[in-house]
Structure formats: C-alpha cells, structure tokens
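Give me the fold.
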Amino acid sequence: MEEGTLKSPSNCAGTVGVDYGDTDPFQWDTREDCQVRQILDRVADKWSLLVIALLDNRRLRFTELRREIDGISQRMLTVTLRQLERDGLVKRTVYPVVPPRVEYELTPLGRTLHTTIRSLVTWTEEHQGEIAAARQAYDAAESGRG
C-alpha cells in the first residue's frame, strides 16, 4: 500500500493529509470497492441511461423497452433492468395473468436521477457544436503530427 493511503477499503476519500476542498480529484475513486464509483458506473452506462430515459413518466413492458433500445440484446436488457431494480431505481411489477405480464417503471429515486440525466442531455445539446469543433481541431492536429 502506498504511503499516505488510507487502509479502509470502503473509504473513497483519497490521500491522507491533503485537502482539495470541493475539487477533490478522489471524490469518485476508481477502486472497485468504492460505492460511489460503483453507483456511477451503473447509472452512467449507456444502457441504464436509455432505460431511465424511456421510463420517464410511463410504464413499459420488457418487449417495448427492447424494441425502443436499438442494439441491446435480451440478456443485456435483463441484466440492466435487474441492476437498476437492485439499486432502487426501477420497479418491476408482475401481473398474475397467462402469459405473465411484467412492467417496469421508475421509482421516486429513479425519477430524481432522470432529472439529472435530462440536465446532462441539455448540456450536451447546447455544447455539441463546440465539442465537434474541438474534435475536428484535435484530429487535424493529430494528422499533422503523424
């Protein structure tokens, strides 16, 4: 273990004795045992973001979700829904009919996350031109170095 590193595996605070204030670069520690990192990994993956976005203010069946999410496999959608349900973001309701009907919807906690995702999408839409220009400039500079 590096000198100055906390020994507690559940602590994601970074290095002992260094105060970064509000800009602490260790706030999203990359260690696998860091709960914050695990949650960010879950909610920021592309499939979770799409599922959360699609469930905004509505219930959908598994087949409807799969039809709406281009490129997702049945297995990946199942895994994603189970993880979101485990994290308390999605509620699964099974109706006692034949064949069984299962619907998914956001929980109150999931709805709060949707608000955050909407902010991220808005930011992306507002800055996509700047990002495209930066990419183009970077690519041109890279091709000149080669």
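Residues 1-11 have pLDDT under 50 and may be disordered.
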